[in-house]
Amino acid sequence: MVDQGTPFLPKPTWVKAPLIALSFDYEGTEVRASDPMRRVFASTAHGAMSIDREQSAENHARAVLESLGATELECLEHYTAPASADYLIQPDGDAHTLCAFTAYAVPQLQRLGWRVTIDPDYPWQVVNEGQWYADVDDTRDGGREQSTWFSLELGIELDGQRINLLPPLLDMLDRASSLRALLNRRKCIAVPIDEKRYVAIKPQRMRILLDVLLELYEGPQQDARLHFSEYAAAGLLRLDEIFGDNAQSLSWSDGAGVRQRAQTRSAVQSIRAPSGLFATLRPYQQEGLEWLQHLRCQDLGGILADDMGLGKTLQTIAHLLCEHSGRAEHPSLVVAPTSLVYNWQREIAKFAPSLRTCAFVGNRRHRLYPRLDRYDVVLTSYPLLVRDLDQLKEQSFHLLILDEAQTIKNSRSQTRRAAVALDAQHRLCLSGTPLENNLGELWSLFDFVMPGMLGSAADFRERFRAPIEKNQDSARLGVLRQRVAPYILRRIKEEVARDLPPKTEIVRPVELRGDQRELYESIRLAAHDHVRAIIAQRGISRSTIAVLDALMKLRQVCCDPRLVKVGAARQIANTAKLDLLMEMVPLQLQQGRRILIFSQFTTMLKLIGRELSDAGINYVSLTGATADRQAQVDAFQNGVVDVFLISLKAGGTGLNLTRADTVIHYDPWWNPAAQSQATDRAYRIGQKRPVFVYKLIVAGSVEERMLQLQQQKQRLADGILAGTQTALDDETIDTLFAPLGG
Predict the structure, then answer these.
(1) pLDDT band at residue 422, thresholds of 50, 70 and 90?
(2) What are the beta bridge partners of residue 25?
(3) Would the pTM of this model clear 0.90, i.e. be above it?
(4) What is the topology classification, in CATH, of domain 503-736?
């Protein structure tokens, strides 16, 4: 009778895949599965006996083996194997597939009572994970400044010997193109120990493990240990997640106390709002203050990136008040756009009058140089920061705060270089739009607040920008989000300001007809041909200005033909979008609504203003050329007029227009963040009425396609947080210059 099947895994010789020899035990006599004889002659204590083979039991055993992935060699035409083999396992399988059979099929067979013998030279042997260990050490790299560096060894203990698994794991990270497919495996991922042995790790555990290593990974390593900066140390805390609550499954050796430091950095303490603050902080603003204080206590920089209108200025003033209540030895410097310097002065006087503040602006500012240490807060503008850098570098500051910090998004700009050159103990960025166009802008801000945290610009481009922006690598995106999360605080209105009324966004398309449509098509054809010729001559990377210039002409036709400086445009009376606007505005005013109208083109605002005047509608306007900015704001806020015309650039910062409840974007722009900033002039704390946002676009035109590009950029920003110009390629250019309505 059949005892049990006994598979044998010999050393593969003719085919590079596992081979199985299957035999059956009849009273101590083994019979190969491939043996054709129907009876077995066995020697027993009672003498020789003849036993009929039990075909049904043998067939059942075969079925069990085949259900686990083995294929009978007789069924394969293109494989030649030794006569001793009966089955082949996954002939096209890789190490992960073959080790999965060893790790899962063999134990199942043994539980069913099978005897399994594995050849000592079998090249896909799987060892038990057993006890994991993590060894953290303090190390310093003379080439890396401004941060402490550590090293990690991670592996398993096998037969009393430590086996470091970091080299093969890091090799997997270096071959990241196959990482996503690797993590999608259902059974196991094989990590090699030597030429014949592997550790089989479940994909769920492996996914977290590689996430942690990606977070710590700083590029090619010098030795068999993983070297990482203190900014990435929080990733160590996630290693415990991999092994659950069983403390015996991962033993730690951390003489440097890195994990404890990481835990301390992640724990924000509750504090009271400072005395002398003439405002009641909302709960999320109190949390923001505690976060700012936590960063300062840990000697860290950060980015306060709350949505527009949630009170970044107030939270920062409360932070300044805490710091200058006996702790700060030097003044703090706030750098803001020129138009906001006096707004900061007014807000500090309103909410924290005890702070000694000076506006370091104007022709007489040089008299203040010897007396800056007498003040708590010094306010200046970005242009003056560049102009007066030599003098400001000589002054030590306690806090260096950049308002509308996206101003330094260009890492090569004079403004950013000037900001980096200042001497400050703590650095803070304020920006509702820390990422407008690409991840390079985020790097620029973080390299200012915490130099080295994201590596050099070249390292960051290789590790994050290229994989995320070009390949949509979700694993790298997750790693970057984990890395920056402790140092960037981003809340949106819908989450924390639930008392704000609803905001409704509406896209209003309009069709071009007649002469205006013909003008668009004629300019489009000529511009596309011109752009293609320039790209052929210079290459796409050196043709950006020509492309944007051609696109601007198309956008101007969409707005109003009178914006286009060609003779044919002057004869065209059709202005489809302006006609739509002049239908909308009177109806909105009849409903008691108060309107902001934004356009990138100041000439367009003049044309709109002329139409409003002809219709008997009073308005005020704000552009870069406006002399008395505050007078225009006051006229609107006090109800003198109900329509405010604002250029997109001039109105992007420093305006609180909560009396408005309707926002009209006359023409879209590349940068969705710039339009959101403009919208948030009205949709901010203090708004009591529902806000309606209208985006006027010409259907099927370059404007509609720009909205699609905006959505792509917004997805990138959202991925990190929870245009100067868009990146152009051949496909994008052909899309933008496609025929009207195509």
Answers:
(1) very high
(2) 30
(3) no
(4) Rossmann fold (3.40.50)
